[in-house]
Amino acid sequence: MASIPTGEFTTHSAEETFELAYRIGEAIADASVFLLEGDLGAGKTVFAKGLGAGLEIDPADVNSPTFTIINQHDGRMRMYHLDLYRIEGGLNDVRELGLEEMLEDPSGVVVIEWPERLGAYALTGAYLINIVDLGMDERTIKIHHKKHKSSHKNHKST
Fold this sequence. Notes:
The chain has a single domain (7-145), classed as 3-Layer(aba) Sandwich (Rossmann fold). Helices cover 23% and strands 28% of the residues. The chain is built from 4 helices and 7 strands. The protein has helices at residues 14-27, 44-54, 91-96, 99-103; strands at residues 7-11, 32-37, 70-74, 78-83, 108-113, 127-135, 138-145. Helix 1 packs across helix 2 (44-54). The radius of gyration is 14 Å and the shape is globular. Mean pLDDT is 87; it is low at 149-158.
């Protein structure tokens, strides 16, 4: 399977953002973590839909879990889609969500919107996806693989 691309990409429509994420979803072969950063309306959920589609999950089923906080989808791999926008208690709230169990799922792909709400909870091996809305449906998408080690025992990914 192809490797997950990193670097800076520019998309000119929601469809192109979806397609970029779809190609990444197709390339996922092992348990992985994706941290989606961006302002409200930047395209984080469109990106999550594309990842899901690449994992053989119906993109119509992938919606922002703003009120439920976590949605689980089963496809070629299991995708946990978290939206931490409403999390205010930091690390304690995150632990109560069962994040550690999700990170230990050997066939799990964890997609987290608003990862800054994780506070000090470090995720080794995560892919940081930063989406910037440039206007007129254009986006800059920066994909960085955080390979550094963390002092926190947690998920090991590609």
